[in-house]
Amino acid sequence: MSKGFDDIPFFDEEPAPRKPAPAAGGIAARAMAARDKAKRPDYLSGLNPEQTEAVETLEGPVLVLAGAGTGKTRVLTTRIAHILSTGRAFPSQILAVTFTNKAAREMKERIGVLVGHAVEGMPWLGTFHSIGVKLLRRHAELVGLRSDFTILDTDDVVRLIKQLIQAEGLDDKRWPAKQFAGMIDTWKNKGLDPSQIPEGDARAFANGKGRELYAAYQNRLLTLNACDFGDLLLHPIRMFRANPDVLREYHDKFRYILVDEYQDTNTAQYMWLRLLAQRPRAKTEAKAAAPGEARASRSWPDDVSSAPAERSRASGDSVSANHRAEARRGQAAVAPDGAPPRSEPRSGDSVSANRHQQINICCVGDDDQSIYGWRGAEVDNILRFEKDFPGAKVIKLERNYRSTEHILGAAAHLIAHNEGRLGKTLFTERTNPDDEKVHVHAAWDSEEEARAIGEEIEQLQRQKHNLNDIAILVRASFQMREFEDRFVTLGLNYRVIGGPRFYERLEIRDAMAYFRLVCQPADDLAFERIVNTPKRGLGDTTVRTLHDYARARDIPMFAAASDIIETDELKPKARKALFDVVTDFRRWQTLLETTPHTELAEQILDESGYTAMWQADKSAEAPGRLENLRELIRSMEAFESLRGFLEHVALVMDAEQNEDMDAVSIMTLHSAKGLEFDTVFLPGWEEGLFPHQRALDEGGRAGLEEERRLAYVGITRAKRRCHIWFVSNRRIHGLWQSTMPSRFLDELPIDHVEVAEQDVSYGGYGRGGYGQSRFDKADPFENSYQTPGWKRAQQHRSEATRDNWGTRSGHAVERIGYGESGPRTRMIEGELVAKSTTSEPSRFNIGDRVFHLKFGNGNIAAIEGNKLTIDFDRAGQKRVLDGFVERV
DNA sequence: CCTGAGAAGTTTTTT
DNA sequence: ACTTCTCAGG
């Protein structure tokens, strides 16, 4: 069943260990064992009792609930080091899954540091997806693929779906491919085949053809010998269910399973994990080989036994080639610290003993940091761990090593407003009277917010703080721009983390399509992408002809092209052009084996005319694109072959950043998870933005709680200083809106919060010809809240909220001036923003003399709904919302 | 084939 | 309000 197991060249198992093993029971081994007993290994020192327990509880299921900053990664890596150095397993017998490549990389590095060089990497440490790819490359034929299948990214997927929608004769305007791609993704996150999707979902798209379309999509992928990201999880699941013998090999193989960020697992990942982590019960196993078995496990997870039970017998029949190979290596193996790998099979006898070995799963996570519900993560997975794995040991890590007590106190009080938590309380023993409280600041608008934060950062810079220790964490990426603009004018270094990816750029994707087609002539998506890029006179008509020709014969388009140029089906001009393309690719394909890949890549881009195309392009971005192409070639150097590079890009999609520069980090709260900074700025704490209106609309109470967890994540990123900001006016989609401070501000504990009073250094805001700013006044926070817009916001709120939330009111921000409105309800869909677009007749008349806080006095020149055009005495003509001016 | 007008969509993001 | 993409018409 698992043929091809050993002859796929892409991945090597661990290299053979170097040192010979001391004879079992020999003097040296006994001495070492004694030494191990007497002396705790270095890597265990410095762990607190809970961490130690999490590291040393190696048998049975373990759930580690690790609050923010409690040493989660340290526990994981130390646990692995412990398993390895006590010889309980080889690196290749440990399955360790993370969500991001970054986390996987970090873990590898840290394990390397702990155990030294003796461990040459861990072949099964990686993201769910990269491990999925590895499994699939080995067993591709079991799910109807070839092992050289391509991995499609979202862009490819959307284009493919668009083709399918058109092929169905549907209007691709009415039924956007992108939307359907999203639906498929959601289904796949839940582990659903086309046959399993809810009827409602199936009907919701394409005149009820949702299900057919999904099925057609899956078929097309198989024809293309391709996978989307979801398939990287689902195919292995299918494969394991249909082939219990293959699954058994992996049960035997993986003694220890570790999962990072368990709160982020979606249903598919959960299914995947349970398949690998739970051996079937003895009873089930007896009929495991029966064909019906795969079917029987369909309704899983509900009917699967929860206990990772031991097997009743060793069925010596299926020790795989791989397993034997591993056992062979075991003969000569030495664990990193020199101790013999005790439980490694050394004889036929211990091989069968091994078959009784239980699989030890350890999941690490924090329910309070679950912020990916919107993309299918199921917090529930972590909440029901004990049910899934009876007898599980649950260890809470609550001792925080990162933040001051004020920061922790603020975060804890905030998150306590969530229900349905497992309930942890972080604490720290480091208290220092000098520690700053969490600061809450108000600003007039987002521009001022950016300016003030910019100044504060310059202040820190003058105090010799590293910019690298400072971060601005925003809720939505559009907030970043204002900071970037400001920092550019200030000349302050910054780096934006996240954002558009290198490998998603047009020119990079084009170049990659060339490379893909060279390596993989059946890659139709790549073919279509570049067949006429640069322009070769192979327009729609030619491509359609090719497409039809290929479909009719069920061959790839490249093959169709090769055929069709032998016929006279095309016009001479197109035929010649196509002939050239085909000959080019054939030539490059032959060079693949002989020419160094970077050289070949360059050659491809040059000879295809792709480079020339951008050189001829006179647009502003052309030079940048050329630079990116050079960068692409450069980044290939680190890889052995074009194929290896393609694989890496498909999975990683990320190019690393320049870490050398001292710069402020700007990123979203989501991408900040797992990071820490001395000083953290959290701008934009306003209703509607944070919590985000859409999260509330679509997620209801759960949505609100997830937003609150996001706030929690934000605050807990800070080690020493945390500055929260909100503004009264923000431009959203071009419209200025008055905003209300976030309800999360009310949920901060007054004891740990300090509301910023007037700060001399802010005195300059709003001057520069605009007349008076709020900050020019004695109480900077008082007057802004007396504007009509503000008052209206107040009114809206008190109407909407007057009642029942007796818990507490927001004294934290009381001094800012809106505390008098009293307790608020915990409304989810309240009137959150004083809507500036009303259709009521204006309160103003043309010619009225008015005052605006920012622009000063002026006369109304025109009225358009609630928008006023005003000739200001000092600031000139401006359009403003009527909420922001007062008659004088 | 190129260009410009019009439409649509603007939470969070990995793989 | 702004950007980005699509498509129609030159």
From TrEMBL:
<dbReference type="InterPro" id="IPR000212">
    <property type="entry name" value="DNA_helicase_UvrD/REP"/>
</dbReference>
<keyword id="KW-0238">DNA-binding</keyword>
<dbReference type="InterPro" id="IPR027417">
    <property type="entry name" value="P-loop_NTPase"/>
</dbReference>
<dbReference type="GO" id="GO:0000725">
    <property type="term" value="P:recombinational repair"/>
</dbReference>
<keyword id="KW-0378">Hydrolase</keyword>
<feature type="coiled-coil region">
    <location>
        <begin position="443"/>
        <end position="470"/>
    </location>
</feature>
<keyword id="KW-0175">Coiled coil</keyword>
<dbReference type="Pfam" id="PF13361">
    <property type="entry name" value="UvrD_C"/>
</dbReference>
<feature type="region of interest" description="Disordered">
    <location>
        <begin position="785"/>
        <end position="806"/>
    </location>
</feature>
<dbReference type="InterPro" id="IPR013986">
    <property type="entry name" value="DExx_box_DNA_helicase_dom_sf"/>
</dbReference>
<keyword id="KW-0347">Helicase</keyword>
<keyword id="KW-0067">ATP-binding</keyword>
<feature type="region of interest" description="Disordered">
    <location>
        <begin position="284"/>
        <end position="354"/>
    </location>
</feature>
<dbReference type="GO" id="GO:0005524">
    <property type="term" value="F:ATP binding"/>
</dbReference>
<dbReference type="GO" id="GO:0005829">
    <property type="term" value="C:cytosol"/>
</dbReference>
<feature type="compositionally biased region" description="Low complexity">
    <location>
        <begin position="287"/>
        <end position="299"/>
    </location>
</feature>
<dbReference type="GO" id="GO:0003677">
    <property type="term" value="F:DNA binding"/>
</dbReference>
<keyword id="KW-0413">Isomerase</keyword>
<dbReference type="InterPro" id="IPR014016">
    <property type="entry name" value="UvrD-like_ATP-bd"/>
</dbReference>
<feature type="region of interest" description="Disordered">
    <location>
        <begin position="1"/>
        <end position="26"/>
    </location>
</feature>
<protein>
    <recommendedName>
        <fullName>DNA 3'-5' helicase</fullName>
        <ecNumber>5.6.2.4</ecNumber>
    </recommendedName>
</protein>
<comment type="similarity">
    <text>Belongs to the helicase family. UvrD subfamily.</text>
</comment>
<dbReference type="GO" id="GO:0033202">
    <property type="term" value="C:DNA helicase complex"/>
</dbReference>
<dbReference type="Pfam" id="PF00580">
    <property type="entry name" value="UvrD-helicase"/>
</dbReference>
<dbReference type="GO" id="GO:0016787">
    <property type="term" value="F:hydrolase activity"/>
</dbReference>
<dbReference type="GO" id="GO:0043138">
    <property type="term" value="F:3'-5' DNA helicase activity"/>
</dbReference>
<comment type="function">
    <text>Has both ATPase and helicase activities. Unwinds DNA duplexes with 3' to 5' polarity with respect to the bound strand and initiates unwinding most effectively when a single-stranded region is present. Involved in the post-incision events of nucleotide excision repair and methyl-directed mismatch repair.</text>
</comment>
<dbReference type="InterPro" id="IPR014017">
    <property type="entry name" value="DNA_helicase_UvrD-like_C"/>
</dbReference>
<keyword id="KW-0547">Nucleotide-binding</keyword>
